[in-house]
Amino acid sequence: MKNIKYIITIAVSVFALTFANAQSTSDTNFRKPVSETLKKIETVFNVTINDDRGLLKGKELDYADWRIEPGNLAISLTNILAPFELMYFKQPDGTYIIRKYENHKVSVDKGKERLFYLESLYSTKEEWEKRKTELKACMITSFGLEKAPPMPKSKPLLTPKRIYKDYSVENIALEILPGVYATGSIYKPYPLNKKAAVILTPDGHFGDGRYRKDEQYRCAIMAKMGAIVVSYDLFAWGESLLQFPEETHRNSIASTVQVLTGIRFLDYLATVKNADMSRVGVTGGSGGGSHTMFLAAIDDRVKVSAPVVMVSSHFSGGCPCESGRGVHLCGNGTNNAEISAMMAPKPQLIVSDGKDWTLAVPELEFPFIQRTYELYGKKDLVENAHFAKEGHDFGVSKRMALYPFMTKYLNLDLNKVKNDKGEIDESTCVIEPKEKLFVFGDKGENLPKNALKDINKLYEMFGEKNLKVYEVKK
């Protein structure tokens, strides 16, 4: 009986497909609903395609079935979806989902194809060095850094120090462009009576910005270990909002300002007594991970890098503050894995997890980056700390992987932060309320009078025009 039902089901399915084809002729340009053609693709290639967001609803296509390329699922799906600016993503379970086209995001298999292509471009250190030089020059031009006005000679604004056990904190506003202030906090070993390494921590898109607990823990611990640590706000986040409204964070110029902020904080730190500029590290998570990679690729002063939950061959950052300047078009197409590889042969820790776009790092991006390090005979200088059961954060396990790495390559003292059991103990750090981390006062009352508040004039500094139009908020 079951066999009869099965045969009837197959017969009905075949009839339905045949009937559908019968209604699609040259009289209608073989026009069909896209959803029907994708059902046919499912049958032909024995796959499952999910339109869980209803993106195909009401969409029809001329010559739909003719666009199916026998034996090539990828081309078939592209032929059907591209006219609607849609794309497909292969999931870990082998199914496919439909999504709107995004320039910063492709499927994991597409990322893998790109890495194979990039590997074909260089097989020697000399070939890689040539490409690296071209990528670096293109990135600098894409960000517009060569057009940046000189840093003003004004002194940084510093708040009084708060002194805690083995470290101190003071807030800073650095005028990186005329009237444009980068805001952050400087954590230093206390007392600071000898040369100390320097570590920058560009902020990411996590809630509460640089005021959150995990960033304060990270900065305080590394200061106790013997480093001068600077944590700084994203553009149009935190105290930067006193100058530029939050919607301007999604202007492409945000990425330029954020890269420039890192460079100019290093310029400033080079003037600070006891700052050892021969030992410079940078680490950040998410969007801060992007800017960790960018700064390490562009500024040769960076000696140790630790990008967290951002190294990916198939995702380059959904925010224009990361991907708005087209740096991933450099070299006729690059990605974060190759930009990360530009750190070679200097020490680098790549931190990844199993629940975001870094899920495939151990099998995909890390071997690709190791290959580049191997061109220098320095394969052991790049490491991957992967947390398969964790998600997109800079949580405690990720920090515990970071501290020994920074200690090893920046000559810090890990024993300074260990308890009687030999464990790294973050509980000795003081978590300050965000009001204590403000440099301009509780209500921004100390914002300098020359502070720029016009995004258009910021663009003009770089010889550009702001083409992004916002709706007026009522």
UniProtKB/TrEMBL annotation:
Keywords: Signal. The keyword Signal applies. Residues 1-22 form the signal peptide. InterPro entries: AB_hydrolase_fold, FrsA_esterase. This is Acetylxylan esterase. It comes from Flavobacterium fluviale. The lineage of its organism: Bacteria, Pseudomonadati, Bacteroidota, Flavobacteriia, Flavobacteriales.
